[in-house]
Amino acid sequence: MYSLHPIGVVRKNSIRIHKRWIKALRGIEGFSHLIVVFWLHSARRAKLLIHPKGNKSIPKMGYFATRTPRRHNPIGVSVVRLINRAGGQLFVEGLDAWPGTPVLDVKPYTPRDAVKNFKIPSWVRLLDEQEPVPLRRYDQSLHQTLRRIRTRRKTLGPRIRTP
User: Fold this and answer.
1) Which of 44, 56, 100, 123 is 20 to 30 A distant from 50 in Cα terms?
2) pLDDT at 35 over 90
3) CATH superfamily of this structure's domain 8-119
């Protein structure tokens, strides 16, 4: 059995690294980009076949062929631009994770990580044309809605479960 231990947490436009791991950041400011690995703690589990981004005009695909956060092991990965480091706070741009998301690892992005020649299916191009705004903007508004729902639940009191 494996266990994962977060090294930090996503904040608005930044990653807050836990005090224990701050020394491990030494030298990271020399990189322009980072690879961030995080646990999609709020994501539900997926069905094996889904319509990418819920678009019913696209045939169902296996969720491994999509970027859905709904996965058996909900691990997220983003390549981000490092704007600045202040102690244990990494200010970044392009992180596709909600505030409060546990961060599992941070790695420097190097030339060996770049893919020069790659291919994507035509349905991905179609989705990109239909949605020019980054999905994370949609996710942030969804996150705000979920936070409001959770707040309402707290004010209404605990849920009563019946057998």
Assistant:
1) 100
2) yes
3) YaeB-like (2.40.30.70)
